[in-house]
Write a structure and sequence with these properties.
Elements: H1 3-9, E1 22-27, H2 33-45, E2 54-58, H3 61-65, H4 67-72, E3 75-78, H5 81-85, E4 122-126, E5 130-132, E6 147-151, H6 167-179, E7 187-195, H7 201-213, H8 219-231, E8 235-236, E9 243-244, H9 255-260, E10 265-267, H10 284-300
Parallel strand pairs: 1-2, 1-4, 2-3, 6-8, 9-10
Antiparallel strand pairs: 4-7, 5-10, 6-7
Length: 303
């Protein structure tokens, strides 16, 4: 089953447009099978990227064994022990203790396998903790720069120094951020459009080397640092294509409604931000994710 076949099964497939050379890439272990199924269902339901090949990287045999993921994917690549060992010398001293692992600084460093030569002209990498709520086909036209991505949402917009601002100020700060490209500085790697220049193991090796000689707080900071150095910088794109779901609650109406109507990807960022892990999750965006999961179950199966 491809995304197009999934869309057809839920009654959402438009006319066939032909096989795409823009592949959708993911990196997960078994703990993210559940959200990835919901994300894939949501992409199909939005009738977008239906002809993009799907590639999943994993270090977990359970991912390869999942019947739905096997059916919808073109390739599930099991990362070799040899390749995993290459990450062992990366300095993890600045990695958040909540996500630090004893065999790799953080699991997200395996996202670097998106920088691989797989026979496609473009990779669209997505974190699994997302929900597709709008069209994504425009991503395939981003070809001029080596890497396109969206910015990190600074916590200072609502809680500078840990002190919560009033709703009006927070709402104004977020609205200003969304409108002002000059404020889009730090890359959030949850959505990356990666073009031919970076689709090689040599670029991944360069990232590993850079993270070995210099300390970083996350894998996405290494990516940005290396691209700034070697390629003149990441092309920053509108936050609507990678919107931090937790920030919607800091927007006043009608700003919240207007912003929500334009978002294409809702990203459930952060250790505590996953609706499938939250007890009694009742934020509107959590309810939205859980509703999407209920709709997906007849097609994806329980995880």
């Amino acid at each position: 089953m491809s995304l197009r076949k999934l869309a057809e099964s839920i009654g959402e497939a438009p006319a066939v447009s032909g096989r795409s050379d823009s592949a959708l890439l993911f990196n997960i272990n078994s703990s993210f099978i559940r959200p990835l199924k919901v994300l894939l269902f949501s992409i199909a339901a939005q009738r977008t990227l239906l002809d993009s090949p799907i590639v999943i990287f994993t270090d977990d045999e359970a991912v390869k064994a999942d019947s739905f993921l096997k059916g919808v994917s073109d390739r599930i690549e099991l990362i070799s022990v040899h390749d995993l060992k290459k990450f062992k010398n990366i300095n993890a001293s600045r990695i958040d203790n909540r996500v630090r692992l004893d065999w790799i600084p953080a699991y997200t460093f395996l996202n670097w396998f998106a920088f691989s030569s797989l026979g496609y002209s473009q990779h669209i990498f997505l974190d699994a903790d997302m929900l597709c709520v709008g069209p994504l086909d425009h991503l395939t036209s981003w070809r001029e720069r080596p890497l396109y991505g969206c910015p990190v949402f600074p916590k200072e917009m609502h809680s500078p120094g840990g002190e919560r601002l009033g709703m009006e100020q927070s709402s104004n700060n977020i609205s200003s951020f969304l409108a002002d490209r000059t404020k889009w500085s730090s890359l959030n790697s949850g959505m990356m459009v990666i073009n031919q220049q970076l689709l090689s193991e040599s670029f991944r090796e360069a990232l590993i080397e850079r993270a070995t000689v210099k300390t970083f707080s996350s894998e996405q900071r290494v990516i940005q640092d290396e691209i700034d150095r070697a390629w003149g910088g990441v092309e920053m794109c509108s936050p609507i294509d990678n919107f931090h779901a937790g920030f919607l609650r800091f927007l006043l109406e009608p700003q919240r409604e207007a912003v929500r109507a334009n978002i294409n990807l809702l990203h459930y960022v952060g250790v505590g931000g996953k609706p499938w892990k939250r007890q009694g999750a009742n934020r509107a965006v959590d309810v939205e994710w859980m509703a999407a999961e209920r709709r997906s179950l007849p097609f994806t199966g329980a995880s």
